[in-house]
Amino acid sequence: MIETICDIGKIVRKTDGEIDLVDLWQKEESGDYQLILDVNISDDSVRINSRDFEKKVFRDGLLYSQGNWFVGAVLKKESLKDSKIKDCLKFIDVPLDRFDEVKSLIDLSLKDYDGVNFVILFWKNGQKPIEIVKNKFLREIEKNGLKKEKLSGNCQICNEYTDTLYDSIVYKCYTNDKEIFSNTDGISYGICKDCIFDVLYGRKHVNMFLSTWWGGSEILFLPHTYNEEVKEIFEFSKIGDLREGKNLLQQIRENECDVINEIGKCGTDVDILFYSAQKSEWKITYNIKDVIPSRFSKIAELEHKYQSKSGENLALWQVLAYLLGNSSKPSEIFNTNEAKNFLKNIFHGNKINRNLFFSRSMSKYKHDYFEGYENMFMLHRTYNFLVDCGCLDKGWCFVEQTSRGYSMVKYEDLEEFFDFNKGFFDSNIKKAWFLLGRLYGKMIQESKSYKGGEDKQSNESHLEKNFFFGRKYDFKTFVYFSNQCSELMYKYGVQNKGYLKDLISTSKELMGAGDSKLSSDEAKYIFFWGMQQWIGKSKDSNNNNDGADQ
User: Fold this and answer.
1) What ranges make up the beta strands (E) of 331-451?
2) pLDDT band at 28, cuts 50/70/90?
3) What are the residues whose beta carbons fall under 8 Å from the beta carbon of 399, sequence distance 6 or more?
4) pLDDT grade, residue 32 (50/70/90)?
5) Domain ranges in the chain?
6) CA separation for the pair 420, 384 (Å, rounded)
7) Tens digit of pLDDT for each residue in 471-493?
8) How far is CA 390 from the centre of its chain?
9) Among the listed residues 297, 478, 299, the one whose alpha carbon sits nearest the alpha carbon of residue 389
């Protein structure tokens, strides 16, 4: 990681030019402040004035803090302590015998700002700290921040000999390759000045353009090769509302498909790093290494292929919700290691346990079903997306590409349906469960008609009660459902309808003695799929089995 960031820094220095070490070193300060209190200390007086808050106050005051180390002449309200005030005075070379005078006037002024969030900037003789002690700040950074040492040797990054080594790799906390840059004679790390500055440039660029908040996690995208073309892709987004001026990764939550497609255009492998950040400390918690550009392009293509009927692209959080079997929100979906493992499988095309997928996905479908989302459209999108990604086997023809894009595949009859989908229906038991599902769905319609007439199809049938989800979908359940449907056909007076007779006889024939094995959850998926799949030459808009998008 450190070498990658160093390489990024070299490109940034080359294309953007040199910038001040103050701007390289300082980090983005957080906090919702309203006012700046300017404490101007002259040789014979102390004056305090207030003005509206501006972020540049932290640069003007040369603030930097990390852990117990503090340098600068700016204090936030929550850090207003006697010891910190003295540090600020010493930093701008104000004698400490002025402390009592300064402190008493600050205390007096604070009575007027009770309940107001502010920062204090210390001035000396009408000059800001950056105007009078900037070199002092830079020396302090090199000494305590970058740990400049009077030691010579070869740089651990570029291997060039240098008279002065820096005992730092800039990142103070855990990174996944920190141990590589260690065990140098006399110091922990040995980096030359050029490389330490490259890392600083790289870190600033990474924080601005290669990091984002996605699915509840802080994430870095680190391309292995960085050049001007890749830099431009990440810096200047060509998607979304261009007037907002967002960079590429800032668009990922609203335009995931387009952003992933753009990353695929970089032409280089990319590491996806999850990290946790707390104040100045952070560490990598998970790493998806070496994602090739074609995988980004492939995933983006599939997210578009399996879009909703309203044209909204499929998103990875929706896929993971079925893999996890819960109703995680988009803002928290990547929070567990299991979710990250699934994401790694998707980006690398690794196999996912088939039985686990159907167990989890049918658990989520059950929850959604009883929340009123009976349609399997989303589950079908997820399943076929994972098949096309290489994570599952045995896809089926759910959508097809036309001259106008992608559209739902239409089937004129069952024979055509099974013929087109031989890859999925590779056993008679699967066909049997599908046909039984179709029969069960037809009997739900017959039940509603029997109870309330054709105009009362909205009435719930007892066949739709909770019990049919809770059963284990094995041979015993198959026989039970078949017998139930057979009995109801006579009860409702529809025993002579040819298509019903064909469904029940063919499904039983295909099931046979129940010797073939199929996981209960996959059988359940096929059963409900059979209940809903439209097969026919035309679709009656008043009897739309596809339902609405979820």
Assistant:
1) 399-402, 405-408
2) confident
3) 305, 306, 384, 406, 407, 408, 409
4) confident
5) 30-143, 300-404, 409-530
6) 15
7) 899 999 999 999 999 998 998 88
8) 21
9) 299
